Amino acid sequence: MTDAPYPIGTPGRPWGAGEVAAWRSRQTVQRSYKTDVLSVIETLRSRFDVSEYGRLDYAPDSYPLFAIKSRGWRDELPCVLVTGGVHGYETSGVHGALQFVDRHAADYAGRVNLIVAPCVSPWGYERIHRWNPDALDPNRSFRDDSPAPESAALMRLVAPLRDRVLVHIDLHETTDTDESEFRPALAARDGKAYEPGEIPDGFYLVDDSEHPQPAFQRAIIAAVAKVTHIAPADAKGEIIGSPMVAPGVIEYALKPLGLCAGITGAPYKTTTEVYPDSPRATPEQCNAAQAAAVCAAIDFALAHPAVASAGR
């Protein structure tokens, strides 16, 4: 960690087009969306329906966006939405979503309609970054007339189903680079002073403060605790600046903040946060934790249909 100013921009002054261009010029491809993600999706086509729901044209690159859906979709069944890679750098969100489809989705055939968007932000995935090329955070951009094409494309995909979704689980990570790069960059972009925070060691969830479902969150935490450790609160009783309302659970106002987990009317919704930099967690554990969270979310919702009906 350093107290030196962020290398782009003037302290106290929000970025303009020149600063955004300078920032974008520093971002380099570090991994391949085609190799890591699209090749895996191809292997799933024999068992699931795969559709292209949009395309991101960021010259010279172009990225097709794919959704994986249950084969034999039945309109009378509830829908489960799983999203990953809204922040492209959050690796287990992408690969945990794909692992869930490969290893667990068949368990829910005939019980729910699944729709999985495993990598919402492929430009960010390749560059291991939180933002899109315009220095916009897709996970603060899920609103009408979204300025982020990644967010707008997903909202168009979900729009016909938004009032039929039973569960939406959005898969994320909190990493050490949140403090070393992404929050300092955010402060610089917005012309604000950077205030250091504390990265929690372990898995946690973000519930919807406007429509909380504490029993649902507890069930996910209990399932994930069998796979990896749960984040404790800090000395203030908080996780990343928000009060911990239950072990491993905080709350945000999902829809007003433009967060992905707020894009449907689902009575059961949550955002997962895996900590991949922990010495106590391997990449395999991180992916497994995401998949376990999805399974636990669906299992709980199917076991509590009366609560679901009341919330819709």
TrEMBL record:
Keyword Hydrolase listed: yes
Domain Peptidase M14: 29-301
Cofactor: Zn(2+)
Gene3D superfamilies: Zn peptidases
Active site per database record: 273
InterPro entries, per the entry: AstE_AspA_cat, Peptidase_M14
Pfam family, one: AstE_AspA_cat
SUPFAM superfamilies membership: Zn-dependent exopeptidases
Domain of life assignment: Bacteria
Key words, A-Z: Hydrolase, Metal-binding, Zinc
Entry similarity comment: Belongs to the peptidase M14 family.
Protein name listed in UniProt: Peptidase M14 domain-containing protein
Native species: Rhodanobacter soli
Record lineage: Bacteria, Pseudomonadati, Pseudomonadota, Gammaproteobacteria, Lysobacterales
